[in-house]
Amino acid sequence: MKKTAILLTILSLSFGCKKPSTSEVKQPQVNKFAIVIHGGAGTILKKNMTPEKEAAYKAKLTEAIKTGYAILKNGGSSLDAVEKTITIMENSPLFNAGKGAVFTNAGTNEMDSSIMTGQDLNAGAVAGVKNIKNPISAARKVMTNSNHVLLSGDGASAFAKEQGLEIVDPSYFYTEKRFKSLQRVKEKEANKTATKTTAFYDADIQNSKFGTVGCVALDKNGNITAGTSTGGMTNKRWNRIGDSPIIGAGTYANNATCGVSSTGWGEYFIRGMVAHDISAQMEYKNVSLKEATQNVIQQKLTKLGGTGGVVALDKNGNMVFEFNTAGMYRASMNDKGVLVVKIYKE
Ligand code: ASP
Question: Which of 91, 161, 231, 276 has the most CB atoms around it within 10 Å of its CB?
Fold first, then answer.
């Protein structure tokens, strides 16, 4: 018995047989298609929520994800599913994107958005745009109809107009709720002492809700698309650009690994290259999506001092929500039509 085992070992070594590495082991397909979304992470606590508000968020998340799900179910592309799903959230004042975008310190609304397709690593993004009704559509046009990846400000708006996208007066983005938030943050800032500046500002951001929207989808052809759209952070300096339009930070998609959309304190997501780091860990360390997102959000981002989270899915249709804040507006749907909608940490 022992002799046979030794003989087999010698044979396998001499014929170069080796245990297949994780990447060579075929992972079972969990879902032929799938979709996952977020509507922002932050200090979202049940005690601060009314049943009406909670129901409104859940209803909008459900409407958005079901739109993308129907596209995927009918054999449509993940690119279409992501754009349409995000458009619904951009058109709602509930989220910090499009219609509900937050205000800069100059009292303006400046939006960032990006999209990426995993089959060709193609990407498009816009930053600091003030009059494009749906920044996610502009990001898609930059990807498909220009030689560039990222357009900003007036140039991005001119391009969107040329492409036939809807341009609105900047006042379209005014909402009383967001304007009041800006006033509150400014008042707090005016009251703080010089020595407490950074700590105060940090605490204020930690306590705010980020509200960005994002979507990742896998279609029946195995193509992954990820997209993100935001108004940024309340009281940000005008012309500040966050992580959401930065490929590799706010958005990333690669058919060989996964798709990711981020939400949280953008500066940390840029420094940590969060979305790409998750994909890179899967590619180079052969870890699962769950392991990669946990490591990047709960270990690396947290250690850096960053707050927020991601939604992500891998090439086999496994979906993940990962965040280090009290809550994250989020939803997922698998190919059987099973819908999950959640807000708080569980
Ligand atoms: N990540 C966004 C930014 O920093 C904010 C958010 O996720 O709500 O611009």
Answer: 231
Q: Evaluate: CB of 232 within 6 angstroms of ligand 1.
A: yes
Per the annotation, the verdict on 212 as an active-site residue is: yes
Domain boundary assignment for the chain:
28-344
- d(CA 137, CA 144) in angstroms, rounded, equals 11
Q: What is the pLDDT of residue 208?
A: 58
Candidates 85, 104, 212, 228; catalytic one: 212
Q: What is the mean pLDDT of the chain?
A: 90
CA of 245 to the centre of ligand 1 (A): 10
pTM for the model stands at 0.90
Q: What is the CATH number of domain 28-344?
A: 3.60.20.30
Residue nearest to atom 7 of ligand 1 (CA): 263
CA distances from 216 to 120, 143, 312, 318, 319 (A): 16, 17, 6, 11, 9
- Cα(209) to centroid(ligand 1), Å: 9
